[in-house]
Design goal:
Number of helices: 2
Strand content: 25-35%
Distance between the termini: 20 Å
Protein name: DUF1797 family protein
Structural class: alpha+beta
Order of helices and strands: HEEEEH
CATH superfamily: Protein of unknown function DUF1797
Largest sheet: 4 strands, antiparallel
Low-confidence stretches: none
Number of strands: 4
CATH class: Alpha Beta
InterPro entries: YkuJ-like, YkuJ-like_sf
CATH architecture: 2-Layer Sandwich
């Protein structure tokens, strides 16, 4: 649970750091491997999650909810830490 809370705190910091109107971005990594990058767009109050695949392809997803964005990131991190 503390890992999910940490993700939520990072995303909230992105929302709160938007006084300048600039796009905020953060990367999420496990053991030095970048899993995804998140951008926060203050003008639309949306998150863009860019997921990096093993095949060097990326997929982008748009979210307007911090909780759903957090869960998606949490799932990516858990999959990397506990492969099936």
């Amino acid at each position: 649970m503390s890992q999910l809370l940490g993700i939520i705190q990072r995303l909230k910091a992105m929302q709160e750091g938007n006084e300048t109107g600039d796009v905020q971005q953060r990367r999420f990594e496990v053991n030095g491997k970048t899993l995804c990058q998140v951008k926060y767009f203050p003008a639309t109050e949306t998150f863009e999650l860019e997921v990096y695949g093993d095949d060097k392809k990326t997929n982008k997803y748009q979210f307007d909810d911090i909780d759903i964005t957090s869960i998606e990131i949490f799932d990516l991190v858990q999959e990397e830490r506990n492969p099936s």
